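General statements about sequence and structure are easier to judge against a single worked case. Part of our work consisted of pairing the sequence of a single chain with a tokenised description of its backbone. The amino acid sequence and the backbone structure tokens for this protein are reproduced below.

***
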Amino acid sequence: MQYFSGTSYLGLDQHPQYLEGVKEGLDRYGTHYGGSRLSPQSPTIYAEAEAAFATWTGAPAALLVSSGTTAGQLAVRFLNQHYDSIHFSPFAHPSSWWPAGIRYEDWEQWLNALQDERAIGCTEAINPVAVASPPWTPIWKSTPSALMIDDSHQIGCSGIRAGGSWLSLRQKYQGGLLINASLGKALALPAGLLLGEKPVIEAMKALPQFGGASPPAPAFLHAWLQSQTLIQQQFECLKRHMNRMYKLVKKAPELLDMVEGFPVIRLYQHAWVDHLAAKGIAVSSFRYPQPDSERFSRIVLRADHSDEEIEYLEAVLEELVAQALNA
């Protein structure tokens, strides 16, 4: 069975070179650092990795925490202290939801709420389940005073050098910008990341919820720091797979959908899931975010899929598309 589901878009979770880096990190740092980042005994690798993430993404400053959810919750806790209201778009991930925030199912209502200069808007840079981007042009036209963007599914598989959305967002938007992300989606790194202006990142470091929490395991940060060339090689491989499948998807937009530069294909024909399985291709299909929510069926591309696997997937999909169009 060939598996086209899950995440780990760069295929690092099983890559021998990346695993070797983790092993080196375990030998050097052990399995975990349970102390506070504020402790003078905190390993210097955290500051080294944060500087490297800032350089890679193009952001002025970076902050590492234990998970994507921790990053989202730390960010909204900070923002709740500095803005009158927090507004979550239809794409906002549950990891950043805040009890005092307002959630929207309608984009127009969300955009209207951002007209308040004391409001902040929260959304994902891409919806990985619906495989759709936010309405960026109307967002820029609404000129919100501040935005919090979840970049979990873009860091590592989009942007300049795979560094995610910071630079592209900054070109279009000059307001207050804060990015939160899980690093487990493309980088196979059990950690969360925050990107922002230096004063904002320094202020979040002062929060007791940051100082009182355990940081990510340093062994994985060691592996990431040692794997920069490998990450770029995997990114180039993933781009090749994405470009090939994107050409096919654009031939039948009523059956398939894909955002250029994002390694996920949405299937609108759920019956295809069983057909693909019969052909030896396992894909993702489930209801989200609740058991009675809409069903989403998707094909997830990874850098460690071989060219032969991508070619086989393409052939099976072309057959299904042809049958559907000729029915």
